[in-house]
Amino acid sequence: MEYTTLGSTGMEVSRLCLGCMSFGTSEWRDWVLDEEESREVIERAIDLGINFFDTANMYSMGESERVLGTVLDDYDRDSQVVATKGYFQMDEDDPNSGGLSRKAIEQELSNSLERLGMDTVDLYQIHRWDYDTPIEQTLRALDDAVRRGQARYVGASSMWAHQFADSLRTSEREGLERFETMQNHYNLLYREEEREMLPLCDKENVGVMPWSPLARGYLTRPHEQVEETVRGETDDHAREHPYYEGNGYEVNERVQELADEYDASMAQIALAWVLDKEWVDAPIIGTSSLDHLEEAVAALEIDLSESDVEWLEEPYEPVRVSGHE
Ligand SMILES: NC(=O)c1ccc[n+]([C@@H]2O[C@H](COP(=O)([O-])OP(=O)(O)OC[C@H]3O[C@@H](n4cnc5c(N)ncnc54)[C@H](OP(=O)(O)O)[C@@H]3O)[C@@H](O)[C@H]2O)c1
Question: Which UniProt keywords apply (predicted)?
Fold first, then answer.
């Protein structure tokens, strides 16, 4: 496994972060693994040297955090880097179980820690921007959480670059913990982040950990077969994303062609492309299969030539913003 320093945290993480949205309970989404199968994938990831895990309170409505915490409890907690997130409403009858008010953050972070069975999470991220709470209040609540020892670092996820820049300036001005990481939507078929967000992260030395690096499976098989898996058929979220726009079919076909040339899978080529981007620290991979996990780790060995990178990128045209509002 390769390791890298996450932004300016000084913390070393594996170049692949294991996304835990696929773990928890199939009662939440048909394609999510239940506890025992989730355990197998998480344990194999640790065997392969992965030390970086991303979950969220809303994945399987808390079950993802509980399962991850239970598995990691059998290992040396100090050697793992655990990230979770809050923002989405956890109880439909309780509006304060979502958002980024001080009340929501304090309650939801405590609930996450309890499910994870941990006193401290390494990275606590805001899952989305809260238009109803001033960012200064959110940052103060997060700063207090760090002072209390409940989180080591704080991070953010999909938002506009101007909002992220505002957050960073507010932290600097008020002497508060700043967002050390950006978890954004980025893959060969969604490159809008290259305009503003990624150069901003680069300039500020913010760690970048993109989500859905394989476009939720769209980049792992020929486009005609995308709906042939349970997730491909039922993941409404994937359909809302503009993967078919911006010449998505042609990009998908070029990934197929390069996979043949490199004697690799399409997933490996798509992942090698993300890993080739200097502003990326660790893509968050989502898999429910041991074989796919092993393929992802093997993709670290693939070195795409500059001309192949250009060829893969060439057909892309701008698409609708996807991942935030
Ligand atoms: N911050 C946010 O708003 C946000 C949003 C979405 C996701 N995330 C994070 O990002 C993580 C990854 O997201 P994602 O699951 O959408 O990621 P992804 O890696 O883009 O897509 C995962 C899909 O690709 C398939 N796949 C992976 N490797 C494959 C291979 N070698 N061959 C064929 N199919 C393969 C998986 O199928 P199998 O299960 O069969 O392997 C799964 O259906 C999540 O777990 C979560 O932690 C964050």
Answer: Oxidoreductase
**Sheet order of strands, 207-208 included:** 207-208, 179-183, 151-157, 121-126, 81-86, 52-54, 17-19, 284-285
With a 6 Å cutoff on the Cβ, whether 285 touches ligand 1 is: yes
**How far, in Å, from the CA of 288 to the mean position of ligand 1?**
8
Q: What is the CA radius of gyration of the chain?
A: 19
59 is catalytic: yes
Q: Whose CA is nearest to atom 25 of ligand 1?
A: 217
- Give the distance from CA 119 to its chain's centroid: 22
Residue 9, ligand 1, Cβ within 6 A? no
Q: For residue 68, is it within any domain?
A: yes
Q: Is 289 in the pocket of ligand 1 (CB under 6 A)?
A: yes
Total length of the chain? 325
Q: What is the pLDDT of residues 250-301, one digit of tens each?
A: 999 999 999 999 999 999 999 999 999 999 999 999 999 999 999 999 999 9
Domain that holds residue 285: 3-218+278-302
Domain contains 236: no
CATH value at residue 166: 3.20.20.100
